[in-house]
Design brief:
Blueprint (H helix, E strand, L loop, with lengths): L3 H14 L8 E6 L2 E8 L2 H13 L5 E4 L2 E2 L9 H14 L8 E6 L2 E8 L2 H11 L8 E3 L2 E2 L5 H14 L8 E6 L2 E8 L2 H12 L6 E4 L2 E2 L2
Parallel strand pairs: 2-3, 2-4, 6-7, 6-8, 10-11, 10-12
Antiparallel strand pairs: 1-2, 5-6, 9-10
Helix pairs in contact: 1-2
Amino acid sequence: MKSDKELKEDVIDELAWDQHLDAVEIGVAVKDGVVTLSGYVDSYNEKMAAERAAQRVFGVKAVVQEIKVRLPNSLQRTDEDIAKAAVNALAWSVSVPHDRIKVKVQNGWLTLSGEVDWRYQRDAAEDAVCNLLGVPGVTNQVTVKPGVRPTEIKTKIESAFQRNALLDARRIEVQVRGDKVILEGSVRSYAEKVEAERAACSAPGICEVQNNITVSP
């Protein structure tokens, strides 16, 4: 198993390698395999890219996100401009039922609300707007409409795990309580833990995934 010092170096290298962000002002701290990211970036998209980069590093058990978005003057936009851009971005996304999503903007911060049929539609709505210029953050309050029995959800998720080449389904236990999925077990990397959550989120009728999977490299 890698030491915290080695993990820190690997995370710093991965941040520098990622072409989607400028890591000059990003700080990295590691304790017991848990990575804390701090500092400043120019956009919400860069903030999320930094988190994904840290998650990819083998040996990382968890990522604490403390990066702040500091918009340059050239990226400052009015709330009205951001709202119009968000509505257009949602309309262009083929995965989003845009007529069921509401947009609110306050001081640049975007809040999405409404109801959709699938968790992937909820996530796609956030993905559609997180790259917009002038947006320091996004709050996703979109809910998923229930309508599938827990036993059906459990079966669908377990089948998805078995099909996924990135996951060892034998090491993951799935529990379903209403519209909430609870994942238990252990995986080999933090990236695999994230992938398990992503796969579970694709099940119909799921509003929340509680990921209790531990990382044992």
